[in-house]
């Protein structure tokens, strides 16, 4: 009998049987579940192109064996836009030209969503750069990426009283 | 990856049982082991995932003022909890390992079991005089680290907890290799009421070590000036494309002084 996992993928409950324990979350998404939005870059945890959210936290899906994810909640780039409306981070990436070739972009966006949810970087550019340091962009769109994360943070976080004063 | 069997135990007892198979290997967060397997540098017969074992996760403080960190606790949680329990030096260390995605998966038990000569935690474990708790015994940090990628762990032995005495003041300074963020040299300085610990990682060909000469000097005068005249010999330091043995020996002094200054 093949081992299996149950997980919630982009809001939908899925039961998945795996015939091989070596399948990573990245390969599961791309090769078996027809969700190629998550990208394979280095395949060893250095580039961040494969970043997805597991239980709301960003992880490198290439370094995560699918079998270790029983019961987990996974969000990929395909699950961000609700009812055809782009997520604020997606909007901000377009608005700020935060990409060039676009290959790293799904990972950048998922990482940004995770970073904003952590709530530690605020809109400070240096903290955003540090918080996004696991995601490499070989077209060096970093300036636009930082601006996009700043914009999205502001649009997603209600202003505190003391900030407005 | 070469093929392997896979088990997902829910308790330490079941994990230990699953690890009795020859060439079976525990899998922590997988941030080192999975890339190693992908490069076919390891060929375990079976992987035993520790990710589902709740009893080895979490951080608390015991009645001896030690931070008790479950072996399966990820770096992000350690960074958060060490701060709220009054050990900001460890937060500084844990919050700069790799990148945020790595810190959401990688565990302290995995790092200490792997004992990479450039890993960060071993410096803190040595400086604080930590105790490594396994499924079968307790090991003092001084007896635990045995060189490059070698530890006192037996086959199939699992790190369940790490007990770190919380210092009065501490800081970790690493000189990063900018791509990997592993330290070329990392120094953890911990000041207690009756002693000072200095743990050095990344530098020596024999792995992490305590710089006892600096510990003595800092014990009587905890200031960066107290270690100004001290140096470690370049003999036995790592030499690679990132830096020579002499460079690393020099960095040990520099990082120690910076750590002392930061801990004050």
UniProtKB/TrEMBL annotation, chain A:
Keyword Disulfide bond belongs to the record: no
Gene3D superfamilies, per the entry: 3.10.20.30, [2Fe-2S]-binding domain
Domain 2Fe-2S ferredoxin-type as annotated: residue spans: 3-80
UniProt keyword annotations, A-Z: 2Fe-2S, Iron, Iron-sulfur, Metal-binding, Oxidoreductase
Molecular functions (GO terms): 2 iron, 2 sulfur cluster binding; metal ion binding; oxidoreductase activity, acting on the aldehyde or oxo group of donors
Protein name, entry field: Xanthine dehydrogenase YagT iron-sulfur-binding subunit
UniProt cross-references to InterPro entries, sorted A to Z: 2Fe-2S-bd (IPR002888), 2Fe-2S-bd_dom_sf (IPR036884), 2Fe-2S_ferredoxin-like_sf (IPR036010), 2Fe-2S_ferredoxin-type (IPR001041), 2Fe2S_fd_BS (IPR006058), Aldehyde_Oxdr_Iron-Sulfur (IPR052914), Beta-grasp_dom_sf (IPR012675)
Top-rank lineage group of the source organism: Bacteria
UniProtKB/TrEMBL annotation, chain B:
Pfam families from the UniProt entry: FAD_binding_5
Domain FAD-binding PCMH-type residues, every copy: 1-169
Keywords (A to Z) from UniProt: FAD, Flavoprotein, Oxidoreductase
GO molecular function: FAD binding; oxidoreductase activity
SUPFAM superfamilies to which the protein is assigned, alphabetical: CO dehydrogenase flavoprotein C-terminal domain-like, FAD-binding/transporter-associated domain-like
Keyword Oxidoreductase in record: yes
Entry-linked PANTHER family: XANTHINE DEHYDROGENASE SUBUNIT C-RELATED
Name of the protein in question: Carbon-monoxide dehydrogenase medium subunit
Species of the source: Tranquillimonas rosea
Organism taxonomic ancestry: Bacteria, Pseudomonadati, Pseudomonadota, Alphaproteobacteria, Rhodobacterales
